[in-house]
Amino acid sequence: MSKPLNTSWTIVAAIVALLLAALGYTVNVIVSPFLLTGAILYLLYPLRSAEWARRLMWLSGFVFLAWFVYSLLGLLTPFLIALLLAYILNPLVTRVEGRGFPRWASSLVVVLLMFSVVALIVLFVVPPAAQQFQEIISGAAAIAQDVTTRLKTGKLFDFLGSYGVDAARAQSFIAEQLSPRIENILGTLFAALLGLVTSVSSLALHLINVVIIPFLFFYLLKDFPLLLEQGRRLVPLRSRTGVDQFARRLDEVLGQYFRGAIIVAVIQGLIATIGLTAIGVNFPLVLGIMTGILDFIPYVGLLTSLVVSCVVALMSGGAVTGKVAGVIILFLSQKLLEAAVLGPRIVGTKVGLHPVLLILSLLVFGYFLGFVGMLVAVPITALLVALINDRLATREPRPERA
């Protein structure tokens, strides 16, 4: 008689848990997520021997953790930045440590070198780049007016008149419709780029983050292997093998991508800056920085950098046609260099995605997460594809029918 009784109590507890979740949803303004999660775990803890109860407890804890991290995302930003930096530079410190140096000393040297480079960039690169960016934005209206003037004074209307188009109506359309739209498009484009730079600058101006991040970075980097081992011990023994395999796959795909993509982006930014300076395009520094940042976004980043650089070349004076042609050749050459040399040798082939899947992931992540989503679309999609392929490869084949 005990088994039916336990089954009955299990059903009653499940119904009560669902009702409690529904009640918490309806009064979410009053009920704290802490109280709701605690009530669910308290109710299901006596039934933890059942598989469905354990899964529901894990799901409740995961949802609560996601809410908690999202709520404290602003406060956790320094920790996340320091953790990402420690993860990226951990192989370098491990390699130096392998040559007989203490890990704390290797970590300290890496932290000092990195933030010395950041300080030099902030002192000598950011001010002229910000000034050039302001000059680009202020010249957007002048570009639109110049384009409109060229259309009005050129042979466009004679060409249209030969096909029976009223020149007066065409001129009115250009003055009232085309010119404002050109100015609006250019203004929106440069304003979006300015918003990106402004957001990055405002983040750097938070003094508390500037002070906290180096210390967090040092301690996380120094104790990174210990933290990984401590986190591994929190995983139950029965699940540890699967978690280890997932962690290795995660590091194999994401680690290689982040470290390689950063190096490639820096190289592309330097090439763009030097090449645009040689061509004679104005504001090569800010255009080079923009090219390096947008290099993380395949196809879209190249197209955006190419269009903006061509527009700036039009306002650079001199032989405009030669400068625009030089910009096009420069960026296409950079794309070929990345596809043939930099990508395979630095980033590797672990992140290789089909172009259709790559474009789809950029659209989806960009739609939901904006610019940040487009930056993380490639590594996350590559990780999902790698996990699916591993799952399919390890799946046992079905027995053949007799």
Task: Write a structural description.
- This protein is mainly α and 402 residues long.
- It has a domain at 2-71.
- Helix content is 84%, strand content 0%.
- It has helices at 2-26, 33-44, 51-71, 73-97, 103-124, 126-138, 140-153, 156-161, 167-204, 207-222, 224-233, 237-279, 284-294, 300-314, 320-347, 355-394.
- The longest helix has 43 residues, at 237-279.
- The chain starts with a helix and ends in an 8-residue tail after the last helix.
- Mean pLDDT is 78; it is low at 1-5.
Summarize the structure.
This protein has 402 residues and is mainly α. 84% of the residues lie in helices and 0% in strands.
Residues in helix, %: over 70%
Q: Give the N-to-C terminal Cα separation.
A: 45 Å
Q: Give the CA-based shape.
A: globular
- State the secondary-structure class: mainly alpha
Low-confidence stretches: 1-5
Our estimate of the beta-strand percent is under 5%
Number of E-state strands = 0
User: Average pLDDT value?
Assistant: 78
Number of helices: 16
Q: What is the string of SSEs from the N terminus onward?
A: HHHHHHHHHHHHHHHH
The main β sheet shows up as: none
Instruction: Write down the Rg.
Output: 28 Å
What would the keywords be for this entry?
single chain; mainly alpha; globular
Write the layout of secondary structure elements.
Blueprint: H1 2-26, H2 33-44, H3 51-71, H4 73-97, H5 103-124, H6 126-138, H7 140-153, H8 156-161, H9 167-204, H10 207-222, H11 224-233, H12 237-279, H13 284-294, H14 300-314, H15 320-347, H16 355-394
